[in-house]
Design a protein that fits this description.
Layout lengths: L5 E2 L2 E2 L5 H4 L15 H11 L7
Antiparallel strand pairs: 1-2
Protein name: ABC transporter domain-containing protein
Organism: Nymphaea colorata
Keywords: Transport
């Protein structure tokens, strides 16, 4: 497999991908007893996102 990684036209050596992008799993599991907000908050906290509200 060959190819190039770019972000808004910038090559990989022209930006810091860890600060501008994130991996989101395609197979997100949801707990039926949780509300949508609780599910999103839980997922964000598991990925290291801080809570701002």
């Amino acid at each position: 497999v060959k190819g190039e990684v770019s972000y808004n036209g910038y090559r990989i050596d022209e930006f810091v991908p860890q600060k501008t992008s994130a991996y989101i799993s395609q197979y997100d599991l949801h707990i039926p007893e949780m509300t949508v907000r609780e599910t999103l908050d839980f997922s964000a906290r598991c990925q290291g996102v801080g809570r701002k509200h």
